[in-house]
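subagent[fold] <- orchestrator: predict structure for attached chain, return tokens only, no commentary.
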Amino acid sequence: MSERSNAASTKIAVDQLVDSLTDRILTGVIPAGDRLKESVLAQEFQVSRNTVRGALAVLEFQGLSRYERNRGWVVWRPTQEDLLDVHLTRFYLETAAARTVGPGKDFAALEKALNALVAALDAGDPRSIVERDLEFHAQVVALMGSRRLNEYYERLAQELKFSLFVLSMSDLFGDRETWCRCHVDIFYALTSGDPERAVKAVGDAVLSTREDVRRSFLPQDWSSSEKDKQNSLAPI
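subagent[fold] -> orchestrator:
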């Protein structure tokens, strides 16, 4: 077998393992905080440890796993405060971008990202929807024209993926038509050239998602005081 064929075969094996582990993590079969042992996974899935390492690296990029000192690979266990804070950071970044709209802005990349998101929503695959959604919002941030802010948002998106993956598979996600209309409204608000309208559309959408994430991850047995503390992290 040629070197190119070996590389292609390895990539297929890694992608298949990523799909299997992602499904297990998002459905709770592998709980947050559990170790992902290379030797165990290699034996269970009948793949090499190099394939397992490749898959775990992809999961880390997707925000689903972390490498911890003295423990190795584990499923990421975010606190609710972590999740709410990352969405709050997203709110400030994206509304700042919305304030910059006006004459001379190029919205071609944003429109392309919107079309890709609509196609993903039509297809109905949760993972693809989340990835296309994050790309759309990355293009919102890109309107500021800052390479450093783009790179920062790319890192932030890895933390956003976990909560959005879980949300996309829950009853709180809502119907695809509503999700699509929300992003179309954001696009037209941004392209209107009216900063006030743009900030409202972007801000409302991000805070609505943040509230859905809060409800999705809110433990049922928390006391009222604990819930109030979490709700006070930012106005919603």
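orchestrator: received. Logging for downstream: The chain has a mean pLDDT of 84. Residues 3-75 form a domain with the Arc Repressor Mutant, subunit A fold (CATH 1.10.10.10).
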